[in-house]
Amino acid sequence: MQYKVEEIGARFSDKGVTALADRFTANANDGYKFHSVISVTKTGCLGIGVSGVTYLAVYIKE
Question: What gap in Å lies between CA 50 and CA 58, rounded to an integer?
Answer without folding.
Answer: 25
